[in-house]
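User: Can you write out an input/output pair for a complex, sequences first and structure second?

Assistant: Here is one pair. Inputs:
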Amino acid sequence: MSVELVGLALLMGLVTYPSRALPMLVPGIDRLPTAALDYLRLVGPAVLASLAAVNVMVTASPSDGTPAFHIGIEWAAVAMCGALTAWRRNLLLGLIGAVALVAIARAAGVAALLI
Amino acid sequence: MPVTGDVTLSASRRRLAVEALAIGSSAVAFGFVYGLAAREAGLSVIEASAMSVFAFAGAAQFAAVGYVAGGLAWPGIILLTALVNARHLLYSAALAPWLRTTPRPRRALMAHLLTDESFALTIAHFERLGRSDERGYWIAAIASTFIPWNLATIAGVTVGAQITDPARLGLDVVFPAAMTGLAVGLVTGRRELVAALGGAILGVAAGLLAGPGVGVVVGGLGGPLLGMAVPRSGADDAAALGTPASAERYAMPASHLVEQLAQNREHRSASQAADEEAPG
């Protein structure tokens, strides 16, 4: 069983810990400049949206790894998840909707028309 | 520090336990989905669990398995993890005044267990009490999140191994859908919306030019700069740390619970006001 990524997990924990601990352990450390706090607040939505968009819109060619633009049922699934989450404030519901849409589309052969 | 102090310790803990149960079920579901996503990305049960124990940060873990699957190098993954998790600085700063009297070694341990969910539960519990309650923090952090998340991770990877064709079941879309849902939870104003849309557009453009791994980094770092170009709207940026509004602003995916807490609090205040005004 592979354990190669345990080191990565440890490093992820190490870089996360200061954000969690410093304000609790070192009073006043949280008084960052407003611009820095603003940037930190906006990193979350930007990184997550970037991850989702790249994941469904950019594919790498299996032969030479060249990136290509991808259109597929995944777009609709991701949009449905976002809409359901925003509407019901329930991410789990959004995920179930997205997975169901893709599974049904693939079973019906509709997804293949879009890819 | 806001002081309410109108609820007894046992009553507030009972309420915390009920809320922790709801959050715990959510952690089980997401931990399971994370386990499936990790299995999809090729992580073993030990590797997936190591992330759940050491990083213990849902969004960053989901992101990391996506980076691993996309072949992004470790330094890139570590940088993005630090950025995604930087919001904990705000949670920690909000809790710091409440935990001032807690011994430092225990605070150091508490810090590792600080998540969106434990913050949302704890800040609401402390506010109800008007003071801190260390045991309440442990209930929120360990019972509602750490244990369910880790057990569900193992279950997700193990069950995932039994599924021969995850794409047929639509499970390959879990990762981008989860990222989208989490991003939606963080969009609370125009600045966040522009940062998210900007990050997505920049990420795709850079991904098409230089590969998906580079695209994610460019979108994640460039999106916030676009968001900062939008003028502050005022009210939605003014929520002070440590208030229910700030908990709602930063909590995910349990934000609906925090909203409910705030509504309950308003309802209670209104009832009290009506009782005081009632004759006799």
